[in-house]
From TrEMBL, chain A:
<keyword id="KW-0808">Transferase</keyword>
<protein>
    <recommendedName>
        <fullName>Ubiquitin-conjugating enzyme E2 2</fullName>
        <ecNumber>2.3.2.23</ecNumber>
    </recommendedName>
</protein>
<feature type="active site" description="Glycyl thioester intermediate">
    <location>
        <position position="91"/>
    </location>
</feature>
<dbReference type="InterPro" id="IPR023313">
    <property type="entry name" value="UBQ-conjugating_AS"/>
</dbReference>
<dbReference type="InterPro" id="IPR016135">
    <property type="entry name" value="UBQ-conjugating_enzyme/RWD"/>
</dbReference>
<dbReference type="InterPro" id="IPR000608">
    <property type="entry name" value="UBC"/>
</dbReference>
<feature type="domain" description="UBC core">
    <location>
        <begin position="5"/>
        <end position="166"/>
    </location>
</feature>
<dbReference type="InterPro" id="IPR050113">
    <property type="entry name" value="Ub_conjugating_enzyme"/>
</dbReference>
<comment type="similarity">
    <text>Belongs to the ubiquitin-conjugating enzyme family.</text>
</comment>
Automatic annotation (TrEMBL), chain B:
<protein>
    <recommendedName>
        <fullName>Coupling of ubiquitin conjugation to ER degradation protein 1</fullName>
    </recommendedName>
</protein>
<feature type="domain" description="CUE">
    <location>
        <begin position="47"/>
        <end position="90"/>
    </location>
</feature>
<dbReference type="Pfam" id="PF02845">
    <property type="entry name" value="CUE"/>
</dbReference>
<feature type="transmembrane region" description="Helical">
    <location>
        <begin position="6"/>
        <end position="24"/>
    </location>
</feature>
<comment type="similarity">
    <text>Belongs to the CUE1 family.</text>
</comment>
<feature type="region of interest" description="Disordered">
    <location>
        <begin position="134"/>
        <end position="163"/>
    </location>
</feature>
<keyword id="KW-1133">Transmembrane helix</keyword>
<keyword id="KW-0472">Membrane</keyword>
<keyword id="KW-0256">Endoplasmic reticulum</keyword>
Length: 167, 190
């Protein structure tokens, strides 16, 4: 019964994202047989080193979605970014459940709640690409580079962008 | 004495009606409750404090007592209560007789996945072209005149058709980005 609520909700979100997709975002289940596993493509925001790139990520939804948030992980090369773990997992406040704030710097309103959506997550991730959050580095190396050697960071990101497109 | 009979009968009939009304109501209520409580949460004011806390955290504006009342009536189903709040129906105010037994413990829900993903499972160093099998399309002469805007709305009543549309949008997005990047590179070298 729990999973029907989740499935219905996910299907509804899938439909909305398909009929009215936000700029630079494509997302949906890999196969409708499993509504709990999605793949999304996000365009790199303009006027950032990610510009021109397309990034693929997988979204895994829990059975009690939308009570709990999905997890999101970049695939196919990962992403060089302070808030993305080296294995591609995205660390951003909207993906954290409301009760879970070990560091006490996130406001409850920024975190996951059932009134959020896949679309909001993807848009948040897009703006995260443009503006890394220095407070909670998931990739310490990338965070350090971003802070101290910005040109090197940007060059590395541009390089990854090209690699991701097979160039 | 025949005069006394009616005066005795009417009150007793009334009493009988009132009593049977309450008995019936009790009976129906009991049935409702036990049907709803089919998930193992028996009758009585037993509501899982964790569920209450979970909902209260999501909707801080909601009255805890209302949440408990709704949970108790739907058999302790968090999704059902959440659904109800989200659809804007709101929660009913419980009758004054409703005395929840559980103290509102400030339980924080134990959440397992606190970025446990730090475990280094090396990201597969695969680019999008090979991942989505686009090498054939990517290497084909770049059709310059192809419209860059992806097909507008992509929704169909047919499941397979939907799948195909999604895949097409995905492929188009990657290929368009690749074409653009190549053009930019050529522009830089010239």
């Amino acid at each position: 019964m729990v999973s029907t609520v989740a499935q219905k909700r996910l299907f509804h979100e899938y439909k909305n994202l398909s009929t009215n997709p936000p700029e630079g975002i494509t997302a949906g289940p890999v196969s409708e047989d499993d509504m709990f596993y999605w793949e999304a493509l996000i365009q790199g925001p303009e006027e950032t080193p990610f510009e021109g790139g397309v990034f693929a990520a997988e979204l895994k939804f829990p059975r009690d979605y939308p009570l709990s948030p999905p997890t999101m992980k970049f695939i196919g090369g990962g992403i060089w970014h302070p808030n993305v773990y080296p294995n591609g997992t995205v660390c951003i406040s909207i993906l954290h459940p409301p009760g879970d704030d070990p560091n006490h710097y996130e406001h409850a309103s920024e975190r996951w709640s059932p009134i959020q959506s896949v679309e909001k997550i993807l848009i948040s991730v897009m703006s995260m690409l443009a503006e890394p959050n220095d407070e909670s580095p998931a990739n310490v190396e990338a965070a350090k580079m971003w802070r101290e050697r910005r040109p090197e960071y940007e060059a590395k990101v541009r390089d990854e962008v090209k690699k991701g497109l097979g160039l | 004495m025949t005069d006394d009979e009616p005066s005795l009968n009417i009150p007793s009939l009334l009493t009988l009606a009132v009593v049977s009304y309450f008995v019936l109501r009790w009976f129906l209520n009991r049935d409702d409750n036990s049907a709803a409580g089919g998930r193992g949460r028996g009758r009585g004011n037993v509501v899982d404090p964790a569920s209450v806390a979970q909902i209260a955290q999501m909707f801080p504006q909601m009255n805890t007592r209302d949440i408990m009342w709704d949970l108790q009536r739907n058999g302790g189903s968090v999704p059902a209560t959440t659904e109800r709040i989200l659809t804007g129906r709101g929660l009913e105010t419980p009758p004054p007789s409703f005395q929840p037994q559980v103290p509102i413990a400030p339980t924080t829900i134990p959440v397992a996945q606190t970025a446990s993903a730090a475990s280094v499972s090396k990201a597969d160093g695969q680019d999008l072209i090979s991942r989505y099998n686009l090498s054939a399309k990517a290497s084909s002469p770049s059709t310059e005149d192809e419209p860059e805007t992806p097909s507008k709305t992509a929704w169909s009543q047919n499941k397979d058709e939907r799948q195909r549309l999604l895949q097409k949008r995905r492929d188009d997005m990657i290929l368009a980005a690749r074409r653009k990047m190549m053009q930019k590179d050529q522009g830089n070298t010239q």
